Automatic annotation (TrEMBL):
GO terms for molecular function: DNA binding. It holds the Pfam family TetR_N. Residues 6-66 form the HTH tetR-type domain. It comes from Mucilaginibacter oryzae. InterPro entries: Homeodomain-like_sf, HTH-type_Tx_Regulator, HTH_TetR. Residues 29-48 bind DNA. This is TetR family transcriptional regulator.
Amino acid sequence: MRPRDEHKELLIRQKAIEMIVKEGLDGFGVNKLAKAAGVSPATIYIYHKDKEDLITNLCIGVAEKMMAFSLRNFSPDMDFAAGLKVQWHNRLHYFLENPLDMEFIEIMRYTNFYEKVSQMVTANFGSVLRQFMRNAEEKQQLVPLPFEVYWSVAYAPLYQLIKFHTEGNSYVNSSFVLDDQLLEKALQLVIKALKP
C-alpha cells in the first residue's frame, strides 16, 4: 500500500469540490476526478473507500472548517449582541474567503450525503449555539424561541445579504455591495427583533 501524500490528498479534495460545483453530482466520477487531479484512480482509493465515502468526507471536511471559522473569538457566555456580531462577521468572512466551499455545501445540503454533516453540526456546533441561546435567554437579552425560529431570524438576513453581495445584484439594485455600515444596520435590526 502506498503512503498517504497530504499534497495529493488536498489536490484531490479541491478538484472534487470544483467538479461538483461546476458539473453537479451527476457529472462527478472517480475516473474524471483522477484525470483532473493528475493522479491515478488507485491513488484516490488510498484516501477513500469509494465515491460515496469521498463525497461524504468532503461534506464533513468543509462543514468542520466552516464551523471552526465561525466560532473564532466566540464564546456561548458572551452577551447576546456581542456574540451575534462575532458570528455574523465570522460567517461573512468565511463566505467571502471560501466561495467555492459555500457553493459546494449549498449543493450538498439537498442530498443524502448531507445527513452525516447535519448530525455532526447538530452535535457539535448546535450545542454551542443552543448554550449561547440559553445564556442570552437567562440574561433576558433574547426572547425565548424554538431553535429553528431563532436560527431563521438571526442568520437568514445575513445569508441573503451575502447572496446579494456575491451575485452583485438584488431585486432592485444591479450593483449591491455589502459594506460594514450596511452589515451593522442589518445586524442591529435583527438584534432588536430578537430582544425581549
